[in-house]
Amino acid sequence: MPGGREKTPVVSAGDATPSPVVRGTPSSTAVKSTPVARTGTYACPGFSGIEADVPLRMVMRDTFAWGDDPAYKVGDGSGDIRWRSDPYHKPSWYMWLHSLRWLGHGITAAGKGDRKALTHVMAIIHDWVRDNPYSWKGDVGAWESTMHRTNVLICARQAVLAGLHVRRLPAQYAWLDQSLLDHAKFMTENWGGPSNHGTDESIAMLGVGCTLGRADLKKRAVERLTQAITTAIDPQGSTNEQSVGYAMFNYQLWGRATTALQRCGADPGPVIEERRRALAEWLALATTAAGELPQVGDTVRQKPQPAAGTSLEYAATLGARGTKPPKRTAVFDAGYVFGRTGWGETRPFTQESTYSIRFGAARRYHGHDDHMSITYNSHGRDILIDPGHPGYQLDKWQEWTRSQASHNVMTVPSAKGTPVETKLVSAAMAPTSEYYEFRDTPAAGVERTRDVLVLKDPDLIVTLDRGESTTNQRYETLWHLAPGQKVTVQSPTTAVAAKPGDNTKTYLLQIPYGQKLPANAITVEQGKQDPVQGWYFPDIFHKQPAPVVKFNRGGPTASILSVVVPAAVGTKVAFSTRTAGSMLLVDLTVGARKTTVRVAPNGRLSRIR
Question: In CATH, what class is 320-565?
Answer without folding.
Answer: mainly beta
